Amino acid sequence: xxxxxxxxxxxxxxxxxxxxxxxxxxxxxxxxxxxxxxxxxxxxxxxxxxxxxxxxxxxxxxxxxxxxxxxxxxxxxxxxxxxxxxxxxxxxxxxxxxxxxxxxxxxxxxxxxxxxxxxxxxxxxxxxxxxxxxxxxxxxxxxxxxxxxxxxxxxxxxxxxxxxxxxxxxxxxxxxxxxxxxxxxxxxxxxxxxxxxxxxxxxxxxxxxxxxxxxxxxxxxxxxxxxxxxxxxxxxxxxxxxxxxxxxxxxxxxxxxxxxxxxxxxxxxxxxxxxxxxxxxxxxxxxxxx
Amino acid sequence: xxxxxxxxxxxxxxxxxxxxxxxxxxxxxxxxxxxxxxxxxxxxxxxxxxxxxxxxxxxxxxxxxxxxxxxxxxxxxxxxxxxxxxxxxxxxxxxxxxxxxxxxxxxxxxxxxxxxxxxxxxxxxxxxxxxxxxxxxxxxxxxxxxxxxxxxxxxxxxxxxxxxxxxxxxxxxxxxxxxxxxxxxxxxxxxxxxxxxxxxxxxxxxxxxxxxxxxxxxxxxxxxxxxxxxxxxxxxxxxxxxxxxxxxxxxxxxxxxxxxxxxxxxxxxxxxxxxxxx
Lengths: 290, 278
Description:
The complex is a heterodimer.
Chain A: H1 2-36, H2 54-61, H3 63-94, H4 101-107, H5 110-113, H6 116-126, H7 133-140, H8 157-182, H9 186-194, H10 199-228, H11 231-236, H12 248-257, H13 262-289
Helix pairs in contact in A: 1-13, 2-13, 3-8, 3-10, 3-12, 6-8, 8-10, 10-13, 12-13
Chain B: H1 2-36, H2 40-43, H3 58-66, H4 69-100, H5 106-115, H6 121-134, H7 141-151, H8 153-165, H9 169-177, H10 182-193, H11 195-211, H12 214-219, H13 227-231, H14 242-277
Helix pairs in contact in B: 1-14, 3-14, 4-7, 4-8, 4-11, 8-11, 8-14, 9-10, 11-14
């Protein structure tokens, strides 16, 4: 009796969270898998025949899928590496001692607390062809010869949405890497200095190895997040002009939603998940190897 | 002389670059707020003037008196408060279990909670939509509360577990020797000591719900319309009402930003703790 109670207590405490998670996450995941194997379209809800992998075959045969995948790769690589670069620079700066460091550290995080929808609005407003402040400044400073319709042009729209997500995400890296920097003992730098190591050598031999763990983890978390995110693009361009900013999650969303094709949309979402799981799996596996 | 040189180096090498970075972080946000208090004619003159000629609250007043944005603010508040209540009710006992008991699958489960974040929202949203439509739950507070309350769970449980681990187990045991049950030990002894952490996690849940867009768009949007969805209404086919949009953006972003600045230290500590530990 006592032993059953001992055994059951932790599970009783966990039960509500597990139950709701199963209901809101696991059940839909199973459901999405089911949908992806059936022909389910909005205008014919009663007839849902099993069609095996036909949704997957059709998705992979569609050139729009490959285009979206390409856009996703550009989106993730550019967004994450720029966020990382700006955030790392920020972390190194904020790790130095100066009078208003606390305030700077607090303020730098503001973009991160804003809703994606508002971030999308802010940057759409600033990049506007007629009224955008960035166009005004660019022309006035001589960087642009004329106003540019950033989000309405095929070759600049992606750059516009990437700029917005870099702004949203760089604080995450600044703050996580700063915490990592502060965990590196000062003695290491002092010892290096005595041995005659310069700033650059100290950076490569102490800072980077000391941060390695944090860098890998934060890159991984951020990559998953950026790869899955679609609200910012949805608000700013809706995937357009044409399909110029359509990434994989957005392609899945639009196929299901505007296209009314639930089966195919789910298949695309499952493919996205598998791609991500694959990449994360390879990264974790290689990390264990080294 | 040497001191002055050091001061100059600090100024040029550190303070100016930091100022540039802070400006990059804040100026777009400030530009939105400034745009929200400029009259319509200044917002429609191209090229836009950098310095406002006159300031006005006309957009804010129109937004709150002539549109349903006030109701949307209320809807967002209800949903976010509900999500915090539900989220804490689920996360506190779960985190307590992780911090106090050693049981089979414990580490496995803790990791699984983080894996959940890997599933793309786009994969969950469609089945949830179909499911909720079946049970007539679409466009209700309940739909959004349960959605928002759940997707913040992994990080919340992670954070709370580390707070609870900082509170000595002996306190629970002393309470239980005095006749308290486990639940009473949690509520009367551990929770009061963990209040700062619980408040920080609550604020995180609130902001996450307040800022959320896709669930709010897909699972509701007509009867229950949160602010992030409501803002989109000012974007028309041919015309964008920038004044109203900027005013709405200002009103929505202020509470979230202040709450975040208030809870920042604890949240960031917990977050980076999680990231550093892997």
